């Protein structure tokens, strides 16, 4: 059921528009009785298990199925945890930086249709006061449980590696201003991307670490040595590794090398076939290992919506054949990726083991967000967030907290 990124009126998008999401999920999956999802190959923390049974009781995964449980046969399918997206700017035609609350909910719903059951809303560079107000608005949705938090990408980034950010709005990371944004998020700030080599960068990293906010190195022109300093100060994430940072050099190894080699750092990767060559992805997995990679979308408004002209912050973006680029200058401007496509590409094109792809899309980002006790794996007691895939790794069912977002049908999908 995954939407073609170039099809504005795909079935998934039409379905998402009709739903007009509220702050609760649509139809309960279980009704009055627990539900057993039976026969699929379930990807558990120990690895894939064929012919597995996963029981949903209310909003949680249960340890055992009572006799009165309803059974859905998923033989021939995959059952995996719901995807967790650390870095997402919008979708379904909606921007998380500038959209109304209803539009933001529609963007969240669009990504849920593609299996993302936990999502952090990312903002782009703007005026500081505007971003503070925006953080307060997004914090309300986080308080309601629609978002897992807020990620600030900019304005504290390097003009040398600005990507799709307005250069006139960039500024050095003053710790007082960093604190202003964190406070404005009302406890829901989860991550901030910084060019840590700029004045105030290291002090800002320390401040973020003290307040339990992930400090991410990105849109940076830092040297290898400066990046090591940032990691020692408390930075733990590489924002879309390889993109918007100096390339690896044999005499100037740069930030990529420092971020890959340090076991304290998780590296974000945009696996859309545009941002990264497959060899770069393999390089990251080889050096960081599957426990330190998090696939993200870095999605903008066009994700799950279609080609056209959009705004990313104050900058105009053209989306052609699913690739977003700035109208002025042609820089890649986020992506139109959804995480189901990232997953399918990982296993069918990149050749990753299914368990490694699940770790990169579910367990690793859940751990970074401090949510591993609730989401990221199929285990008793955790939220019933899961995705049903057919044999071709396409989404045919999505459940969030025990409610179907994409319903596989009363008897389950036909075997793929």
Automatic annotation (TrEMBL):
Pfam families recorded: Amidohydro_1
Entry superkingdom: Bacteria
Skewed-composition ranges (Basic and acidic residues): 1-15
Chain spans, region Disordered: 1-32
InterPro entries associated with the record: Amidohydro-rel, GlcNAc_6-P_deAcase, Metal-dep_hydrolase_composite, Metal_Hydrolase
Biased composition (Low complexity): 19-32
Keyword presence, Hydrolase: yes
Keyword check for Protein biosynthesis: no
Residue ranges occupied by any Amidohydrolase-related domain in the UniProt entry: 79-405
Keywords: Carbohydrate metabolism, Hydrolase, Metal-binding
Gene3D superfamilies to which the protein is assigned, alphabetical: Metal-dependent hydrolases, Urease, subunit C, domain 1
Family listed: Belongs to the metallo-dependent hydrolases superfamily. NagA family.
NCBIfam families: nagA (TIGR00221)
UniProt-recorded name of the protein: N-acetylglucosamine-6-phosphate deacetylase
Native species: Streptomyces ziwulingensis
